[in-house]
Amino acid sequence: MSNTVVETGALVQTIASLQDYQQYADLHWEGSFEDYLEIVRKNPQVVRNAFQRLYDMIISHGREEYIDAKKKLVRFPFFRDERNGGKDAIFGLDIPLMKLANIFRSAALGYGPERRVLLLHGPVGSSKSTIARLLKKGIEEYSKSPEGALYTFYWKDLGESSGLALYKEDLHPCPMHEDPLKLIPPDWRAEAFQRLGLNAQGRSTLRVHGDLDPQCRFTFRRLMEHYKGDFAKVVEHVRVRRLVLSEQDRVGIGTFQPKDEKNQDSTELTGDINYRKIAEFGSDSDPRAFNFDGEFNIANRGIIEFIEILKLDVAFLYDLLGATQERMVKPKKFAQTDIDEVIVGHTNEAEFKKLLNNEFMEAFRDRTIKVDIPYITRMSEEVRIYQRDYNEHTSRTRTSRRIRSRWRRCGRR
């Protein structure tokens, strides 16, 4: 029996040896608000908005300039998906991907595209979903790297044991993963950044957009009342932690897909009332009795993908219009709430024609930037797809048959 225990322990240790303890410690960093201000002073890049972070992620994989048909083009290795062995690599679409990257660059600089929905438009099977999936995977991996680090916070000592009794539990996370600098009231920010040397000459200018979400705003206001306006005392209840984006955990990456109209409503985007907590807090308009877990809420600081976006019901489009133009969403019974996220949708040709012919959708058309994702027009690029998808276990005859079938379906011989 003892031999079995020793052997089992050795097997577990074999698995445990695969873990990178330093990386785990970095990704689970925690500190005070003061510690976070020091991080920002050393590296203002941690305060980037979602578009800036997404564009920097693409550029972090490099860029390659080349000449094709006497035209100077740029290829972005990120879309080759080399980190995953090319599983979702995009072939033969250098020009559309270059246009997409330029849109991200303009949005990062604040030139306007950040207030629009990026609409990937093209025929079936032209890799629209693959591009969206690549962007989500890329920003998730980037958030784990030192260059892509970002931070959020949680409240501590707010339970009954502290005497405040704002919540039942002592620890309470920020539901929308806000940047800790949002704790500085908007009226103070410009002067505060100046005094801290964060906007000194020769350094990146910090721009923190918007206010806290309703729940954190409520907590902050109650603490300010409790401490009679002493901001230093309030932030003693704040613990800053590293934020790692994750689609599986619904942190900073959201995905929304239209379903049956009878079984779906707009609260899936903006959150809903937690009826169980109404009895605890006494009102359905108390932000503590609201779940800020809609797709717009959980995708804050990252990216949200709308699958077949033009199949959305009109009720969803109202929220989408505000989220794009104003960068705000309207949770039920609360004021408009600021969001910071990249909104990407995709649709096919038939649905897009319906949009163009619908005069009631003019507002939505004005708030979209269409990026055409066409079929591949070069045989050499098409072959690369099949070389990736079909390995030595697939017969050559079967592969050739599928290539000819695909080309006939695309209308080419």
Walk me through this protein's architecture.
There is one protein chain. The chain is α/β, with parallel strands linked by helices. The chain folds into two domains: 25-372, 3-Layer(aba) Sandwich (Rossmann fold); 379-409. Helices cover 40% and strands 14% of the residues. The chain contains 17 helices and 15 strands. The chain has helices at 2-16, 21-27, 33-42, 50-59, 94-108, 128-142, 186-195, 214-226, 231-234, 267-270, 275-281, 295-298, 314-325, 349-357, 362-366, 379-389, 396-409; strands spanning 30-31, 64-68, 71-75, 117-121, 150-155, 172-173, 238-243, 253-256, 272-273, 290-291, 303-307, 328-329, 337-338, 342-347, 368-372. The strands form five sheets. A five-stranded parallel beta sheet has the order 8-11-14-4-15. Strands 1-7-5-6 form a four-stranded antiparallel beta sheet. Strands 2-3 form a two-stranded antiparallel ribbon. Helix 4 packs across helix 5 and helix 4 (50-59) crosses helix 6. The longest helix has 15 residues, at 2-16. The radius of gyration is 24 Å and the shape is globular. The model has no long low-confidence stretch (mean pLDDT 88).
